[in-house]
Amino acid sequence: MSSDPTPACPTSHTFSQPLFILLTTFLLILILSTIYFLLQITQKLLKIRSDPRNKLVTKEQSKQKNTFDRGVGSERTDVEFGSRELVELKERAFNQVPARRLSISFSFRKQADEKEYEWEIHWKEIHLEEKVGEGSFGEVFRGSWLGTTVAVKTMRNASSNALKMDKFLGEIALTSTLHHPNIVLFYGACVEVPNVCLVMEYLAINLYDLLHTRAKSQIHFFVLHRFACDVARGMKYLHRRAKVIQRDLKSRNIMVDNNFNAKICDFGLSRYMKLDQTMTFCGTPYWTAPEIIRQEAYTEKADVYSYGIVLWELITAQEPYSGMESMEVAYAAAERGLRPTIPTVCPEGYAELMQRCWSDDPADRPDFTEVLEILFVMKKSFENLMTPAMMATHRRKSIQDLGVQYQ
Where does ATP bind (predicted)? Predict the structure, then answer.
């Protein structure tokens, strides 16, 4: 019987051919992938270069344009940035980009009288009259613009203080986007250094003066309740629609018009909402939420705390924490739970609402949607106690007693 033939051993040539094909295929795929990747990068670079918003203007190129230098600092730069959309201006302002880059967006003009934004106002159109206020930022004047009486908020040392310029331009960018009946009307702004200013609706009376120096007991409760509703409506708009935290809500920053409509003003400390926002202490201690004083993360509920203090002012017509120093109040409110004393005679519902608003835990504070719902229920209960004629008479008498025009 013959034995089975021994199988032949595979030669090296048998393995080398499939291996060669595999390596060749792999290298071909790698080359094609690399070419595709390079093409994608090239397309993106060409797209970026073709976008006019991303073009840089050098000194040599800027000589061909009819422009002027309005930077904040004294030193010049070799590269100037072109114009940006208003939304980019706002983002840079609130991300604390240096004032020089922010202000450069205002520096390009084809002609001296050309306006880049609809809200820009030329300084020559503004006429200052009486000074009505001042602060660390500058001064506020009553003035006129195109025949309209306006409030003009000027900036002191606009050409030399980069940090203040950042903040002021940020306030302009923010205020120009706000449109609500309970927000002081923004007319425009002048960005011609050194005459940088904000032009707003002129209202002669703020709530603080009305409560603490002019009226005291003369204002009828229905008018006070209307103030509370107006401020809550304005704050609801800021939080829900504009996504803005006011951060300095107080009676001095609430203006009152001739028809006793309350309007929120002064957004110099305001910021767009961000989660877990933290910052150094700002605002006025008497109205400032404890989490801001403690430099903790905070949300829009910080404004609700301030609103609770304003409610207390409306009910008592007194100054909060009278006789205490501001830093003493800040420490006591943040660390020891100090709050204004609620009067024994207080309209039903107000005491509970104030206490909820100034709760130490922001989560326990209502938002302004809920605040308005509570105020509406209280208003209906008040109205049930008086006839419409009685309410109209009381409201008219309250306004006339204060020497304010009634319409």
Answer: 153
